[in-house]
Amino acid sequence: MYPYYPLYGRRTVTKEELLTLPPQHQDRQPGFEYVMNPLPISENPHYKGSGKLMGKVAVISGGDSGIGRAVALAFAKEGAKLTIIYLNEDRDAEWTKQRIEELGSECLLIRADMRNPESSNQAVTRTVKKYGKLDIVINNCAVQFVKKSLLEISDEQLMTTFQTNIFSFFYLTRAALPHLKPGSSIINTASVTAYRGSKNLIDYSSTKGAIVAFTRALSQNLVDKGIRVNAVAPGPIWTPLIPATFSTDMVETFGTEVPMKRPGQPFELAPAYVYLASDDSGYVSGQVLHVGGGEMVES
Question: Whole-model pTM?
Answer without folding.
Answer: 0.92
